From TrEMBL, chain A:
Transmembrane segments: none annotated. GO terms for cellular component: AP-3 adaptor complex; cytoplasmic vesicle membrane; Golgi apparatus. The gene is ap3s1. SUPFAM superfamilies: SNARE-like (SSF64356). It is found in: Cytoplasmic vesicle membrane; Golgi apparatus. It comes from Austrofundulus limnaeus. The keyword Protein transport applies. This is AP-3 complex subunit sigma-1 isoform X1.
UniProtKB/TrEMBL annotation, chain B:
InterPro entries: Adaptor_Complx_Large_Subunit, AP4_complex_esu, AP4E1_C, ARM-like, ARM-type_fold, Clathrin/coatomer_adapt-like_N. Keywords: Golgi apparatus, Membrane, Protein transport, Transport. The lineage of its organism: Eukaryota, Metazoa, Chordata, Craniata, Vertebrata. Residues 676-691 have a biased composition (Low complexity). PANTHER family: ADAPTIN, ALPHA/GAMMA/EPSILON. It comes from Austrofundulus limnaeus (Annual killifish). Belongs to the adaptor complexes large subunit family. This is AP-4 complex subunit epsilon. Gene3D superfamilies: Leucine-rich Repeat Variant. Residues 675-697, 722-820 are annotated as: Disordered. Residues 1022-1126 form the AP-4 complex subunit epsilon-1 C-terminal domain. It is found in: Endomembrane system. Subunit of novel type of clathrin- or non-clathrin-associated protein coat involved in targeting proteins from the trans-Golgi network (TGN) to the endosomal-lysosomal system. Its main location: membrane. It comes from the Eukaryota.
Length: 193, 1128
């Protein structure tokens, strides 16, 4: 499980914070501060893993982070996640941001906090990795953005807009899977004694 | 007039900005957010930022509450609020508006509304109830984006009690035509499973469908669920192993569309998931492991080292190979892999390499020896994390020979580490090692001194406690004890003579205690000199009042001599009038006892400190005082719950909701209209906390400790070897604890020292040899050729050391038969057969039940089938070949049942464990007042076993032995019986009894056998006969409760009566009364552990409400009720 995803800049200013477990407001701020404190004092040529600080939950937890230019991306995860896997997930996240914002920079994250959250929601849902495929994430986000544009255009005709929205469906991703190959048979359970 | 004009004019811009055209609204709001951010960045102090944001928030507040604000503007306002909240400023006024936005906005506004809700609220927030309806509506929407949003918010947070309301809708989505919806639904259901496992029990077979989904995305989402389920119960999903292997095979072979590739690696995250699942399934299971070998080999080969993500897969592969039943050539490859990790210049890989080494070290210490120089380098690595990981590895390989070097390294690290968390963890480890392997007194005391001064006040409190206990209880030799204590005293006296103000409080308290108890051992130091040193502590500003009372107690113990009197007198004068009552009391004691040396020696006997003090727990010595007080007109004592009850009665305003006052009147309180959300969530969060606590407690145990030894230097050791090979297994090996090694005093021979290295390397070589000494097998020992006797110095007395195993992994070599008992419940074997037949009939009779829930029987079959087919799984687990012949033998064990129990019904006698000499079987007998466990020990070898001693323990159960003396001799092929009374300390759904048998064979070596016995809660449940009135008063007094809807036997003529009667017969509950649609039922575990159940028919379900004075009882009982009703 992913417990929290934090993005802050080199000065510790939070740019995005998403907690998948409940902490109260003060604790959340304290976690952000402590995480920044832990991460920022590490050199560039050390490993990207940190055994969790006190706050986020003891020895089972781990901070996995990457540092891009002015921003730190930190994922706090428990032992059920693969360290290197998460490290690459951060990469996927950043690459996705880069595609969605076209050369993403810190300002994009500041002014479009909501959009970043929406992108993140397509990747991680309730602390579980939902999608790791960048194209798929972008398609989902694009659909929603398209809806935004078309809606701005049809705002004058609410009735039409509603019907348009209703009829708009998510695109079916062409995922041609050879079903024959992946056919996992539900084991035929013997009827109960 | 002009005034009015002016006002209108100034108001215009703001009006415009509030209600301008849609296109520009976005811009203006954006610039508003921009303005805010720009404003913040321009500020220099935190204080200014606070002021600015407060101003911003109050303007937002004004706008959101204005009725003219459109949803579109609301959306922009929410984004701004999200920003402020992220910076840590609370905007609770906006929460309700976020919910409103999610409710009323169009799709885009709704999206922001949901986002704000998921960022602002948590699952126990009361406002969340307002969202339930919105979620319900959106789940039914035809717009897929709305459905997606609803599923997302549901998996982020949803009130536990409201899950039943939306569960059917989410379930429905599992068969939706769009894969993204199915995927999100699977994850949402997983989330439900995590927070309320009971409620999704019935959809387990739908999870299977998700696993077989034609879309790989949905399938990979379902792996989340399976990973969790298999972790909890690996036995139940062995049948899926083949499916997982097939999936992995297809992924590895690249059968998935290119879409799923990441850096040319096919679906790496999916592979990682599958490998984790496989390692869980293959653990201790040869037949399952064999299915996996081929694909593991394939994965190892396919994963070319070219990208980070392939290393991630490799790492999982290696872990899997070392977890499952071993195969030599795979191990070799895995070892090579670990090598390349450790030697890699990339630090991340080095870190994982060290982790992998730590994981495998107990199975394969040779591998560590191979990489010893790299490990030494890692010890000096600039990255503290790498250093720490290395220490963790060293901790695992510590033995009596290398303990001094390793502890020294750890203490060095502690000096530089600033992280509290690391300090606590490491200090605990040092203390543990010091206690286990200390080579001599001086070293032990000095190490502990460092531990106390570094660990200071953050360390776990049990470290000083166990240190003091160790000093107090001593070891086997009186002379040694005295030396150790004397050394401690000397060391502490010199510490106090130095600068005691620098020492942490906890350390000072330890010093005080030791000086108080043992200062007399050192005849060179005058008691009044010690007293003066202690008095100095009292004057220190930094001393807390807790430390001061420790000082005063120590002084009280020491003050017998005449010269000491003046110091004692002075101190007691000062503190006799302290504001702190504790200090004042201690000072008074000091004053009195220092004047009366006869009394002092009675209160603090010097020599008799080891005799147990008898405690009169009934406080009978107070009887006289009580009766006097009563005669003088004092009110009689009432226990707290009685007081509370009376108070609530006498109060003018009843603070309890009416629905709670009497169970009879509860009809007014249906499940849907609950009293108050906060109250409910409180109880749920309470139970959640306790689960978390127990989880934490269990996770603190070392995961690798006591892993069964399946490894030898030659590879896998067959678990149960024929007797003639036993000697070979007994041969000393590096894996055994040094204590055992010491027992045998194994001969150490030399290995050729490695090829000479340059001077600079010399030092490292030396370090290596001192670190890894004792790791190699005795026949090919250490590089330095140092062969030291390895007896454990601080050998605690038997009762402390012979602790039964607590970690789950220690018992995993047990036959899975234990699992069967889970379902055997209280039934005798004959009953079992009949119930099996009954269930069978049920599952055939699908159409009859189909009306209420067609899925139910199916799900049942799947669940129950596995544990009951023990015979299969026993064979599958590849246990000993003489398992088969043993089975019939079990039956004749019945004749060994003690006479007084033979009349009572007993559970089936199950074979728990066999080794070359003993067969252990057990059953349990349900008596009127308790459960009795009967363990049959059969000596199957040809020689007699001696000094048989059995220990059984369980965290939740109190185990008391009928007769505690060890069996002196058990002749070959004879049987002895041990009986234990079991009473529940803490209720749980199922109890694991862990047992350990110690015995000696003719050879004289101490042997052990472990076993695990599972007992369900139902064995302990007894009917509780109470009247309705008694039930009423009890109901009020009990504080722990839980509620849930249970299935009702709708097809019966009187559903409620039929259902309750079923519960009565299955779980032995007592039905107190049934009035109309309500019924009350009572049961107990012990007379003081009651549990009351109130049932009401509601909307075709049985709304059950359980209450008990015991914390976990309602939840556990509810589980069994649910089970019983589903199994019928």
């Amino acid at each position: 499980m992913i417990k929290a995803i934090l993005i802050f800049n080199n000065h510790g200013k939070p740019r995005l914070s998403k907690f998948y477990e409940h902490y109260n407001e003060d604790t959340e701020q304290q976690i952000i501060r402590e995480t920044f404190h832990l991460v920022s004092k590490r050199d560039e040529n050390v490993c990207n893993f940190l055994e969790g600080g006190m706050l986020i939950g003891g020895s089972d937890y781990k901070l996995i982070y990457r540092h891009y230019a002015t921003l730190y991306f930190v994922f706090c995860v428990d032992s059920s996640e693969s360290e290197l896997g998460i490290l690459d997930l951060i990469q996927v996240f950043v690459e996705t941001l880069d595609k969605c914002f076209e050369n993403v920079c810190e300002l994009d994250l500041i002014f479009h906090v909501d959009k970043v959250h929406h992108i993140l929601a397509e990747m991680v849902m309730g602390g579980m990795v939902l999608e790791t495929n960048m194209n798929e994430i972008i398609t989902q986000v694009d659909t929603q953005n398209k809806m935004e544009k078309s809606e701005a255009g049809i705002a004058g005709a609410p009735a039409r807009a509603v019907s348009a929205v209703k009829n708009m469906n998510l695109p079916e991703m062409p995922r041609n899977i050879n079903i024959g190959d992946i056919s996992i048979k539900v084991p035929n359970l013997p009827s109960f004694k | 007039m002009s005034d009015v004009m002016e006002k209108t004019l100034t108001a215009l811009p703001s009006l415009l900005s509030l209600d301008s055209q849609p296109g520009s609204a976005k811009l203006s709001a954006n610039s508003k957010l921009g303005n805010l951010i720009r404003g913040i960045t321009e500020l220099t102090s935190k204080h200014e930022e606070e002021k600015l944001i407060q101003r911003e928030l109050s303007s937002i507040k004004e706008q959101v509450s204005s009725p003219n604000t459109t949803m579109r503007q609301m959306k922009e306002l929410m984004v701004r609020t999200i920003y402020c909240e992220m910076l840590g400023y609370e905007a609770s006024f906006s929460y309700i508006h976020a919910i409103k936005l999610a409710q009323q906005g169009n799709v885009l506004e709704k999206r922001v509304g949901y986002l704000a809700v998921s960022l602002f609220l948590n699952e126990s927030h009361e406002l969340l109830l307002l969202l339930v309806n919105t979620v319900l509506k959106d789940l039914q929407s035809t717009n897929l984006i709305e459905v997606c949003m609803a599923l997302t918010v549901v998996s982020q947070m949803f009130p536990k009690d409201m899950i039943p309301a939306i569960l059917p809708l989410v379930e429905e989505k599992l068969s939706h035509s769009k894969e993204i919806i199915r995927r999100k639904a699977v994850l949402a259901l997983y989330k439900f499973y995590l927070i309320a496992p009971n409620q999704v029990q019935h959809i387990h077979n739908k999870f299977r469908k998700a696993l077989c989904d034609k879309d790989p995305g949905v399938m990979s989402a379902s792996l989340h669920i399976y990973l969790q389920l298999i972790q909890e119960n690996p036995e139940g999903y062995k049948d899926l192993t083949m499916s997982f292997v097939t999936i992995l095979k297809q992924v590895v072979m690249g059968k998935l569309p290119m879409d799923f590739n990441y850096h040319c690696v096919p679906a790496p995250w999916l592979q990682i998931h599958l490998l984790r699942i496989l390692s869980l399934l293959g653990k201790n299971d040869q037949s399952m492991s064999e299915i996996m070998y081929e694909i593991l080999d394939e994965s190892l080969q396919r994963a070319e080292m070219n990208h980070n993500i392939t290393y991630a897969i490799l790492y999982e592969c290696v872990k899997c190979i070392y977890t499952i039943h071993p195969k030599p050539d795979l191990l070799e490859k895995a070892a090579k892999c670990i090598g390349s990790f450790v030697l890699s210049p990339r630090i991340n890989l080095k870190y994982l390499g060290l982790k992998a080494l730590t994981y495998v070290v107990q199975q394969d210490p040779k591998l560590v020896l191979q990489h010893q120089m790299t490990i030494i380098e890692c010890l000096d690595h600039p990255d503290l994390i790498i250093k720490r990981e290395t220490l963790e590895l060293l901790f695992r390989i510590t033995n009596a020979q290398n303990v001094t070097v390793i502890v020294e390294k750890m203490l060095d690290f502690l000096q530089v580490s600033e992280d509290n968390h690391t300090t606590i963890d490491l200090v605990g480890k040092v203390a543990e090692l010091a206690e286990k392997y200390a080579p001599d007194n001086e070293w032990f005391i000095e190490t502990m001194n460092t531990v106390f001064s570094v660990g200071g006040d953050v360390m776990q409190p049990d470290i000083p406690n166990s240190f003091l206990k160790l000093l107090l209880e001593g070891f086997d030799s009186v002379e040694e004890d005295k030396k150790l204590r004397l050394f401690a005293v000397n060391s502490y006296v010199s510490l106090l003579q130095g600068e005691p103000s620098r020492l942490p409080q906890r350390f000072l308290q330890v010093i005080c205690w030791v000086l108080g108890e043992y200062a007399h051992l050192n005849e060179d130091v005058e008691p009044d000199a010690v007293l003066r040193l202690l008095a100095k502590l009292l004057d220190m500003k930094s001393s807390t009042s807790e430390t001061k009372s420790w000082v005063l107690i120590a002084m009280t113990k020491l003050c017998s001599g005449g010269a000491a009197f003046s110091v004692a007198h002075e101190v007691s004068e000062t503190y006799g009038s302290s504001m702190d009552t504790m200090l004042r009391q201690r000072a008074q004691e000091l004053q009195h006892l220092s004047q009366d040396s006869a009394l002092q020696s009675r209160v603090f006997p010097r020599s008799g400190s080891q005799e147990p003090v008898e405690v009169d727990s009934s406080l009978s010595f107070l009887d006289g005082f009580v009766s006097e007080a009563l005669a003088a007109g004092a009110a009689p004592y009432k226990p707290p719950h009685q007081r509370q009850e009376e108070m609530s009665r006498s109060k003018v305003l009843s603070l309890e909701p009416y629905g709670l006052s009497l169970p009879i009147s509860m009809s007014s309180c249906s499940v849907t209209d609950r009293q108050s959300p906060t109250l409910l969530s409180m109880s749920s969060s309470l139970s959640g906390d306790s689960a978390e606590l127990s989880h934490k407690a269990s996770s603190t145990t070392l995961k690798l400790d006591g892993v069964t030894r399946v490894w030898g230097r030659e590879g896998y050791l067959v678990q149960r070897e024929p007797v003639q090979e036993a000697a070979q297994v007994e041969a000393p090996s590096p894996l055994r604890s040094p204590r055992q090694q010491g027992d045998e005093d194994s001969p150490h021979s030399q290995t050729p020292t490695p090829t000479p290295t340059p001077e600079s390397e010399q030092e490292k070589q030396q370090l290596a040899s001192s670190l890894f000494v004792g790791l190699a097998s005795p026949s090919s020992v250490s590089l330095m050729g140092k062969s030291e006797q390895t007896s454990q110095r601080f050998r605690r007395k038997a009762r402390i050391q012979d602790k039964p195993p607590t970690s789950g992994e220690q018992i995993n070599n047990l036959p899975p038969g234990g699992a069967a008992d889970l379902l055997l419940d209280s039934n005798v074997s004959s009953e079992l057969v009949s119930s099996l037949e009954q269930t069978h009939r049920n599952s055939l009779d699908l159409t009859a039940n189909g009306a209420c829930d067609a899925e139910l029987p199916d799900g049942d079959v799947k669940e129950i089938k596995t544990p009951l087919s023990t015979d299969d799984s026993v064979l599958a687990a590849g246990l000993s070949p003489h398992e088969g012949p043993d089975r019939p033998k079990d039956l004749c064990l019945t004749s060994y049942l003690p006479a007084e129990l033979s009349g009572l019904s007993h559970s089936e006698i199950t074979l728990l464990c066999t080794n070359q000499s003993l067969d252990l079987s057990a059953c349990h007998v349900q008596k009127e007042d308790c459960v009795e466990l009967v363990v049959f020990i059969k000596n199957s070898s040809d020689s007699a076993a001696h000094q048989l001693q059995m220990q059984i323990s369980c965290e939740e159960i109190e185990v008391s032995c009928v007769c505690d003396s060890p069996v002196e001799e058990l002749k070959s092929h004879s049987v002895t019986v041990c009986q234990y009374f079991l009473t529940v300390k803490r209720p749980s759904v199922c109890f694991d009894l862990v047992g350990m048998v110690y015995y000696q064979l003719a050879a004289g070596s101490l042997q052990t056998a472990q076993f695990l016995y599972k007992l369900p809660l139902t064995s302990f449940i007894r009917p509780l006969a109470v009247s309705t009135e008694e039930y009423g008063t009890m109901w009020l007094a009990f504080s722990h409760d839980t509620k849930q809807n249970l299935p009702l036997m709708k097809d019966e003529r009187e559903p409620l009566t039929a259902t309750l009667n079923l519960l009565k017969t299955k779980l032995q509950l007592h039905v107190v009364e049934i009035i109309g649609e309500e019924g009350i039922v009572a049961c107990c575990l012990r007379p003081d552990q009651q549990c009351l159940l109130h049932c009401r028919m509601h909307a075709g379900m049985l709304a059950a409400w359980l209450r008990s004075p015991v914390p976990d009882l309602p939840d556990s009982l509810l589980y069994h009720c649910q089970r019983a009703l589903q199994e019928r």
